[in-house]
């Protein structure tokens, strides 16, 4: 299956209000830094937590793009309007797009 993918240059800044960001990284990665307002469902929990993924256009992210590519392909098969972020959170961070972290440490991608 072809995975719908977008480069960061194709993602508006700021993000459109009607766009959901789904972060499929593990909890420790999420805690270190994520996109504000994103929905966090680790890839391994996605089938059991599918009801937490809102309907509508969704940008799926992980660290580099591999896990989010898997999630995007699977969600597309389930009928979701999804696109994978090429380069993932590493590209997001490199472009100095805004992130937040859990706790007091500055946000970073781990």
UniProtKB/TrEMBL annotation:
A UniProt-annotated Pfam family: Rhodanese
PANTHER family (alphabetical): FAD-DEPENDENT OXIDOREDUCTASE, PYRIDINE NUCLEOTIDE-DISULPHIDE OXIDOREDUCTASE
UniProt-listed Gene3D superfamilies: Rhodanese-like domain (3.40.250.10)
InterPro entries given in the database record: GlpE_sulfurtransferase, Rhodanese-like_dom, Rhodanese-like_dom_sf
Protein name: Rhodanese-like domain-containing protein
Lineage: Bacteria, Bacillati, Actinomycetota, Actinomycetes, Propionibacteriales
Domain Rhodanese: 15-101
């Amino acid at each position: 299956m072809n995975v719908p993918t977008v480069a960061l240059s194709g993602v508006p800044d700021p993000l459109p209000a009607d766009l959901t960001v789904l972060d499929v990284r593990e909890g420790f990665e999420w805690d270190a830094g994520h996109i504000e307002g994103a929905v966090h469902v680790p890839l391994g929990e996605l089938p059991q937590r599918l009801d937490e993924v809102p309907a509508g256009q969704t940008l799926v992210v992980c660290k580099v793009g591999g896990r989010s590519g898997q999630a995007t392909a699977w969600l597309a098969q389930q009928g979701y309007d999804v696109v994978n972020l090429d380069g993932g959170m590493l590209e997001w961070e490199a472009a100095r797009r805004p992130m937040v972290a859990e706790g007091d440490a500055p946000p970073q991608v781990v």
